[in-house]
C-alpha cells in the first residue's frame, strides 16, 4: 500500500495500492493541513502531523482508533516524522532540532539535537526493514521487472502487478509491452 496526505480543497489522509488503484480515504474529518506521515508497519498504524492544528495524531490502516498523541504550541512547526519503538521522531523547523515524543501518551518530549537545515527524518535500523519475499515485480528470465517492458507496480497484493509505460509510450494489448 501507498499512504499519503492531501490538503487541497478537502484535507485527508489516504491509501491506495502501489499502482494507484483502490484509493481510500482513511481520515477526512477534523483535519486541516496534514503534512508529515509515518507508518507503524508492525501494528498497522498511520501517524501524521497537522501543521495547522499543531497536533500529531494516529489512526489504524482502516481509519479506526483515531486519537491525538500531542497537541499545542510545544510542537508547532514540525516537519518530517518517523516512528521507532516507543517514540516518534520529528524535526522542529523553527529551531532546527530533532524532537522525540512518546507515541503512546505524548509525554516525554525531548529535544535531541540541533541541525542546520533538516526538513525530513528517517530511522534506519535492521529491525524496521521488512523481510523481502517473492513478489510479482521480480525480474523475469529476460531481466524485465514482472515481465513489464518499462515499469512494474505492485497491485492489490504482492502476487499481483500492473505494467505501466514511461511518458510518450502506450501500453500494448498484451498488458506488458510499451510502444
UniProtKB/TrEMBL annotation:
InterPro entries, per the entry: 6-blade_b-propeller_TolB-like, Cueball_EGF_LRP_Nidogen, LDLR_classB_rpt
GO molecular function, one term: Wnt-protein binding
Gene3D superfamilies tied to this protein: TolB, C-terminal domain
One Pfam family cited in the UniProt record for this chain: Ldl_recept_b
A biological process from GO: canonical Wnt signaling pathway
Signal peptide per UniProt: none
CC per GO annotation: plasma membrane
LDL-receptor class B repeats: 1-43, 44-87
Protein name: LRP1B protein
Lineage: Eukaryota, Metazoa, Chordata, Craniata, Vertebrata
Gene: Lrp1b_0
